[in-house]
Amino acid sequence: MNDKLAFDREEARQYEAWFETPAGQRIDAQEKALMARLLADFGRPGTMLEVGCGTGHFSRWFKRELGWRVHGIDISRPMLEEALARDAAFEVALADGAALPFPDHSYDVVTIITALEFMPSQVAALREAMRVARRGVMVCALNRWSALAVWRRLVGLFIPTPYSRARFLSAGELRRLVRQAAPGQPVDMEIRTAVWPGLLSRFESSRGQLGAFLGVAVRSG
Questions:
Q1: Domain of 21?
Q2: What pTM did the predictor assign?
Q3: Which end of the chain is more exposed for a tag (fewer CB within 10 A), N or C?
Q4: How many domains does the chain have?
Q5: Sign of the CA dihedral running 147, 152, 158, 164
């Protein structure tokens, strides 16, 4: 595991605190609406593994609001400690997304939410997610070409932030990575975006590919 990519406890607290701000609440609602739409493609709720679950922010929502039975893994012990502080019943493990400690087809759905950007072996992580999933994989990432991503990259040039360590992805790059993770196999993908600025918010959860939050559902054959 790459400790340089692991968040510390203070970053974990700041991550959760941001969701309590007005902007955080607005963006959180938009991201969750997109994920609920993509998860509907996989049928009724079942078992889920969230790779890079962090503080469990989305795992708690998948479990409490959507009815999934969720386990999580992360390489950051401080993030997992924060997750357990918020939900002591959350089943988590310290593990690397590029080498999942689970047999083939262990979970109905595997999710990777704004974590692939921080992984040094993105294709390996996707390959592992597809190996472990029965129905399919949902990946959500920060869009390289959105206004928000450009702003974060500019800020990172002067003020180090967790996003300074991220490799933002475009819709085309995400599609290419998925295909590389499943060479020679037919891949059924649906890509959508959310989190558009200002008046463009009318395009939330659209198939347009310039929103700040990319989501792809990859259905197993």
A1: 3-219
A2: 0.85
A3: C
A4: 1
A5: negative
